[in-house]
Specification:
heterodimer, A: alpha+beta, OB fold (Dihydrolipoamide Acetyltransferase, E2P), 2 domains, five-stranded antiparallel sheet, elongated, B: about 290 residues, mainly alpha, MetI-like fold, two-stranded antiparallel ribbon, about 75% helix, globular
Amino acid sequence: MSSPPLLEIRNLTKRFKDRPAVENAGFTIARGEFFSLLGPSGCGKTTLLRLVGGFIPPDDGTIFIDGEDVTTRPPEKRLVNTVFQSYAIFPHLDVAGNIAYGLRSEGVAAAERERRVTEALHLISLSGYGRRRPHELSGGERQRVALARALVKRPKLLLLDEPLGALDKHLRESMQIELRQIQREVGISFLFVTHDQEEALAMSDRIAVMQHGRVLQVADPKTLYDAPNSRAVASFIGTMNFFHGRVIGSDGAAVVVDLPDFGRLPVPKNGGDNFAPGTMVTVAIRPEKVTLSPVPAPGSVEGRIASITYLGDRSQIKLAVGTGKIPVTAILPQEQSIQPGADALYVSMPAVSILLLRD
Amino acid sequence: MTPAVAHAARGYLLLTPAMAVLAFTMAAPLGLLLAYSFWTQHGLVVDTRLTLAAYAAILSDPGFALVFLRSLAIAAMASLAAIVLAYPVAWFIAFRARAKFLWLLLVTIPFWTSYLLRVFAWKVILGYNGVINSGLMALHLVATPVTFLLYNPVAVVLTLIHGYAPFAVLPIYVSLEKIDPSLLEAAADLGDNPAKRFFRVTLPLSMSGVIAAFVLIFIPATGDYVTPSLVGGANGLMIANLIQAQFGRADNWPLGAALAITTIAAVSLLCVLAATGARRAASRIR
């Protein structure tokens, strides 16, 4: 018999004064997985994390940890620990006292406790900081102490509520790497909440994208980026060009879509969905998948250069096509230069890179 | 004057009116009191040669020590009892109440009546023909009114608790209000049940409020004059009554001054000891 998933949530719903904060959420997290909840602020991701932590009761649904129903258990009786957004370091205890807090609660013997605290300080590269007071620590150090305090309990699942949100960009990036390393080292599943899509893509094994309290898609980073299942997911992860069109027929594995400024384009069906002629659809393509050429190519259309933004390793270019109502965003690699004085390029969208999304 | 000095000087300028008032109403009388305690008095003549005679007189009479220790004991009991009663109220207002301002306003309601009237009220409650006695008689629990209710140290402690408990609620409330709720969530997350969370997080973090409450009550309660005069009886007399007698009937100002100075010193010392002791005890909690 296969072992149950480490975390399973089913139909989880939480309303605040009739406004749903989390609606009918369901997914599973595997042992040792780095799982992220990604979404804009107010999308319900923190509420979902707090439901799993046991800080608020759900209105509906069930939470299983390691196959056990813990829905009605208080936080102190769940084998889950949390790194709080504010870190919640106890100001009246020193660093060692903070890390040992949960071990004292369990009644771990003094010698064992000391050993584990020393080990935890080593893990977060703060050996020798045991006697420091919280107010003597920098933001990054407090963040590590909060992490160590939770990890030292050896939870089955660690919940992290935007733990890197308060750090500056540089520190955040090095902490992302460190956090991932620590996670691999200890082998504990992480449930990581963030609104930063780059952070989620860089760190996670799998990501659940949330909006308005609903889980829109659960997938690994590459799938989310290459095959988002909805316009909301596609626009939240990275930059995306969207065009509205109408299905006019099908051609084997492809659907033929009529786009106002581009004409007829065959688009792969990506399995599943059956698009009847006449259906209004959204066609999406990543800027880096749009190809540009100084000379006309089969299927290309002329695009007038509207703006070029220099980004160091590449340039982002906006082009007006046809009526010019919807600009096309494309990426120009550094090595590809534009002829001085050129004001138009030929834009083509390779069929394999186009996504078809129902409106 | 450098800008920094000028800035500081402006600050002191703001203090000047209050300082001037305090100099006349507090510093000068205190200085005079201190001076008197080292003088002697023969009839109406005050001998201003410095001597420790008044302090020696205090030490030689065990009666003074008895009243003195009784005052400290009564004040300590009243302060501790007021804190124990006030803490849950403050906790409720800080963590559970919705209309916090309303509750705080309700706590201050006793202050809308004069302290003297409230002490008299206790006389009415505890007295021979008082509320408790008439109640007991009506229920036929006693045949004649009981007399152990009034005119003893217990009556003093009871009245002091009632008079000063609101002073305990406010500082404790302020210290509880400052506690970040996520600290309590973190304690729960790390395995503490509600009782453990209280003793390991809430109590140590509200210790400054508890200490403030103790100091705020202990100091005026030790020196309380009205309460022991009205409900204390002979066995409930406190140091302030004794000091008043030296400046009145007994007409021995140096002795009264020495008693007052000794009381101030003892109370200050005890407050410092209690505060450091409480702080140490709280820092032991892990």
